[in-house]
Amino acid sequence: MQPTHATIPQPQKIYLADYTPPAYLVRHVELTFRLAPKATRVIARIQFAPNPAAHSRDFFLHGEKLKLIRASIDGTPVQPVLVDGGLTASVPDAPFVWESEVEIAPIENTALDGLYMSNGMYCTQCEPEGFRRITYYPDRPDVMAPFDVRIESDLPILLSNGNPVERGAGYAVWHDPWPKPSYLFALVAGDLVAERGAFTTMSGKDVSLAVWTRAADADKASFALGALQRSMLWDEQAYGREYDLDVFNIVAVSDFNSGAMENKGLNIFNTAAVLASPATATDMDFQRVEGVIAHEYFHNWTGNRITCRDWFQLSLKEGLTVFRDQQFTGDLHGHAVKRIRDVIKLHTRQFREDGGPLAHNVRPESFVEISNFYTGTIYEKGAEVIRMLHRLVGPVAYGEALDLYFDRLDGQAATIEDWLQVFQDATGRDLTQFKRWYQQAGTPQVSVVKEYADGILRLTLRQHTPPTPGQPDKLPLVIPVAIGLLDSEGREILATQVLEFNQPEQCFTFSGFDDAPIVSLLRGFSAPVILRQENTSEELALLLAHDTDSFNRWDAGQQLARRTLAAMVIDNAPPSSTYLNAMQAMLMNEALDPALRALILSLPSEEDTAQNLALAGQIPDPDAIHAAHEALKNHLAEHLEAVLPGVYAAMQVDAPYSPEADQAGKRALANATLALISRTDHGQAAEAQYAKADNMTLTLGALASLLSIGRGNSQLAAFATHWADDKLVIDKWFALQVTEAAPRRLLNMLNRLTALDTFDWQNPNRFRSVLATISANPAGFHQADGSVYRFVADWLIRLDSVNPWTASRISAAFDGWRRYDTGRQALMRAQIERIAKAPGISREMSEMVGRMLA
Ligand code: BES
Ligand code: ZN
After folding, report:
1. Quick check: CB of 342 below 6 Å from ligand 1?
2. SS3 state of residue 432
């Protein structure tokens, strides 16, 4: 029988090349909300003016799921023509006032896009295109206007953007003087309590700060408030950027599709990205909260004051703001560990995307649904591109360019061209070739040939970017390659230099040596490329032991691990003793930061091994990969058995809990050593740690160790009972069981977890705690009978009908399907096609599955 290939109809695409300026600009917006769960009235009074730069006079307002009650132009009632996705009307060729009243039902809004309800509270999410579900409006980021908002409700706390103007019985009025696009609009109404604080800006302006939560979460808001103050101070010191309103409000919401949103003066956060207490949040959670608070705060300048002309420019704000939050976290807690964590994320999330059917440019040229482009490429690769620019021009010129950026583009909706032009003007550098980083998808591969003779080292670098969907041929990129040299004793003989590698093939020579130097290449991961170099294991061990660049020390350890894992998977080889001995030396090296030791000791993920094998032309076998990882961990545990307890003991913290890096680093190494100890002591040490732990980092570390060796059932049950009232902690309980499940038992586990009353699947955090966590258990996901593929597809179809955004993001779990054997390929393909053909599938999901199958 011939396989039948479905032709999936592709929804309408929009193109960057088709951009036209808006026909009408908005001078001012006045909104009144009469809040009611089933019938909220929104009255809008909007001052329009013809845009002198427009190509047409067609008046179009976006609008979706709105019931139009009435409309008028300059006070005269009109009957607009309702069309797909909005309305049109004939309007004067001069400034005019549009008024409309619409009705919406926030309680029925399960997509959590626009105005919706969560736990009896009203809140909004408008980026990218949610405002059109609130009222008729030119819902595009290049239309910016000041807003006045009146909220009518009996709820005690009524918030919107900008500064408070008036508060009376049953209403509140807000004024936002800064022109903003509609995607930054926000409204919150609920029964909330505030953790309050203050900040005085560098020019002496006092700002009132508040983090709003449900009363039950009041004890988990103080860390976020402090993080906000640290962010405000850092942006003044590092970028000279000052806050520009009298108040800054943050609200915690438990039903939220993403992590957080930078609405002007009123950031709205997923509870998971703002609430933190030692008992309920891990060290990583604390660091994430601080990073997200910083990120959303930094958007005030990179995103809000200077916004995007259109959604193709999304990385203009997201890539830059991620780079800024990375700098912030590094400055506060140390750059070495932060850089390694960011690169791990880039490797597992972005490299995978860039090597598969969902690969796209940092600046896409077309899309169906922009909501599908909040990706690792826009965010993490976008940040890497800015990091490269920073490295190429140097920190001083970078600072000058950013000053020019803020001066020149403040109050505007800008493009990647504007951004690059600023760098060209500030530095005199021609960035024509550099711009390809924005226009070319795929991860470049860089190979290195080293030749040494007569005191001269000759490096030949070659670059090659494999084809990606719609882009068969690639041009050479400007790749900053940070390099250092060591002698055979491990002493640095050449401090870091940056090579500008911009040809398909290029030679660099270094001279004046007595002996062949050891090359430390791509220090600090100076470019988002895959480096293919033929280092010997001895060279890697030397770099791991002695490199002055801590990123490359860690990377040398990972390369050793990758090699031994590949040999174990392909040839059934025993683990390399070079690797095991090197790990012992690192573990025992007390001069090294414990956090760094913990990272060095961690194996690459199974996903990383799969990517590596695929790169080497192998078909990854998830079971064999899992078995090799387990075997290597067991070998490590045995090899280090004598020394692990001593290190574990040395990592115990007596002082009261603090999430700061020194304590967190010790706990990271304590948990990493505990995981290995548990493989030989039957969980004794882990049970003891669980019993006496007084913070979530150690509790969860102990529980993970126990589950990974098939124990911990009583602790798991006690944990669930103890934390039954804390949703965020119960999310961890769900996620941990999915991560640690033995691959063959995963389906059972999934069925059991999703049958529980507490599996509130319409809550995005709870849904993700099970469904998005499956990808952390690749051997479980890829069960050869396809049963888990079917399970995931079933749930994606179900969630898609209520919440397309969250469902379509998780569908990317299938993007690697072509990497696998024909049996698994067919099984995955069948599930992707089943999703594609499911009745009533959303545009978001339909685009995702269409791209995966194309
Ligand atoms: N602007 C986004 C929020 C957003 C995400 C809006 C998706 C619409 C769709 C926000 O600034 C953001 O990027 N948040 C990240 C966290 C951040 C630290 C990278 C998130 O929500 O995951
Ligand atoms: Zn962002």
Report:
1. no
2. coil
Report pTM: 0.98
User: What is the pLDDT, as a whole number, of residue 8?
Assistant: 52
Ligand 1 atom nearest to CA at 371? 9
Q: One-letter amino acid identity for 382?
A: G
Residue pair 842/798 in contact (Cβ under 8 Å)? The answer is no
CA 293 to ligand 2 centroid distance, Å: 10
Task: Measure the CA–CA gap between 572 and 436, rounded to whole angstroms.
Answer: 42
Centre of ligand 2 to C-alpha 625, Å, is 35
Q: Is the pLDDT of residue 392 over 80?
A: yes
Distance 93 CA to ligand 1 centre (A): 38
Residue to mutate, 183, 253, 261, ligand 1, most ligand atoms under 8 Å from C-beta: 261
Residue 265 identity (one-letter amino acid): G
Distance 320 CA to ligand 2 centre (A): 9
Kindly state if the Cβ of 374 falls inside 6 Å of ligand 1: yes
Ligand 1 atom nearest residue 374's Cα = 7
Q: Which two tokens stand for residue 78?
A: 């009109």
β-strand pairing of 171-180 with 163-168: antiparallel
List of long-range contacts for 617-621, beta carbons under 8 Å, 24+ apart: 618/570, 619/819, 619/820, 619/821, 620/819, 620/820, 621/569, 621/821
Ligand 1 atom closest to 296 (CA): 11
Average pLDDT of the residues in 15-20 = 98
CA 589 to ligand 1 centroid distance, Å: 39
Distances 652 to 609, 640, 668, 692, 713 between C-alpha atoms, Å: 32, 19, 11, 12, 25
Quick check: CB of 334 below 6 Å from ligand 1? no
Q: What is the pLDDT of residues 620-677, one digit of tens each?
A: 999 999 999 999 999 999 999 999 999 999 999 999 999 999 999 999 999 999 999 9
Token digits for 242?
């000052």
Q: Does any ligand 1 atom lie closer than 6 A to the CB of residue 258?
A: yes
Our answer on whether the CB atom of 294 is closer than 6 Å to any ligand 1 atom is no
What is the pLDDT confidence band of residue 3, given thresholds at 50, 70 and 90? very low
Evaluate: CB of 542 within 6 angstroms of ligand 1. Answer: no
Expressed in angstroms and rounded, the spacing between residue 473 Cα and the centre of ligand 1 is 32
Q: Which atom of ligand 1 is nearest to the CA of 379?
A: 19
Q: How do residues 104-115 score in pLDDT, each as one tens digit?
A: 999 999 999 999
Phi/psi at 777 (5° precision) = -130, 70
Q: Is 291 in the pocket of ligand 1 (CB under 6 A)?
A: yes
pLDDT for the residue 1: 39
The one-letter code for the residue type at 100 is S
The secondary structure of 644-709 as a DSSP string is HHHHHHHT---SPP--SHHHHHHHHHHHHHHHHHHHHHTTHHHHHHHHH--SHHHHHHHHHHHHHT
Cα–Cα distances (Å) from 458 to 445, 492, 510, 516, 657, in that order, read: 19, 18, 7, 11, 52
Identify the pLDDT of residue 135: 99
pLDDT band at 538 (very low <50, low <70, confident <90, very high): very high
Contact (CB, 8 A) for 242 and 206: no
Residue nearest to atom 18 of ligand 1 (CA): 292
Interior angle at CA 173, CA 167 and CA 177, nearest 5:
135
Q: Which residues surround ligand 2, an ion (CB under 5 A)?
A: 318, 321
Active site residues: 296
326-344 pLDDT per residue, tens:
999 999 999 999 999 999 9
C-alpha span between 726 and 200 (Å, rounded): 35
Strands (E), 412-546: 413-414, 445-453, 456-464, 479-486, 492-501, 505-511, 518-521, 530-533
Whether 296 is in the pocket of ligand 1, judged by its Cβ within 6 Å, is yes
Residue 169, classed as helix, strand or coil, is coil
The structure tokens listed for 164 are: 């408070």
